């Protein structure tokens, strides 16, 4: 059994026991989070009806907060002396899927 859920602005394929890295969620480690299901696959049965999916909840437990890889942004314009350097690390959250309840 697996589900497609919306997590942090993206769609993720999850099943029970999976550990996901999603955009930051303002929840502390050890607490639980629920995601809305967009599609549910249980063996041969595929559920995509919005009314049935409204009853489906995907529960996950927050494992830790993390940061993504360092990204370096460099802007340069020739012959003008313009240079700009900037860095960024995206805040992320790791969650472990604990249950898919239909």
TrEMBL record:
Coiled coil stretches, renumbered: none
A GO molecular-function annotation: structural constituent of ribosome
Protein's UniProt keywords contain Ribonucleoprotein: yes
Domain of life: Bacteria
Keyword Signal tagged: no
A single GO cellular-component term on record: cytoplasm
Alphabetically ordered keywords of this record: Ribonucleoprotein, Ribosomal protein, RNA-binding, rRNA-binding
GO terms (BP aspect): translation
Protein family per UniProt: Belongs to the bacterial ribosomal protein bL21 family.
Cited function: This protein binds to 23S rRNA in the presence of protein L20.
HAMAP family: Ribosomal_bL21
Record text on subunit structure and interactions: Part of the 50S ribosomal subunit. Contacts protein L20.
Name assigned to this protein: Large ribosomal subunit protein bL21
């Amino acid at each position: 059994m697996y589900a497609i859920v919306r997590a942090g602005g993206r769609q993720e394929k999850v099943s029970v026991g999976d550990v996901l890295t999603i955009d930051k969620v303002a929840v502390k480690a050890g607490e639980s989070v629920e995601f809305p299901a967009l599609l549910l696959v249980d063996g041969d049965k595929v559920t995509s009806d919005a009314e049935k999916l409204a009853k489906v909840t995907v529960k996950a437990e927050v494992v830790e907060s993390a940061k993504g890889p360092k990204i370096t942004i460099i802007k340069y314009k020739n012959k003008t002396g313009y240079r700009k350097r900037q860095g960024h690390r995206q805040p992320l959250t790791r969650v472990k899927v604990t249950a898919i309840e239909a």
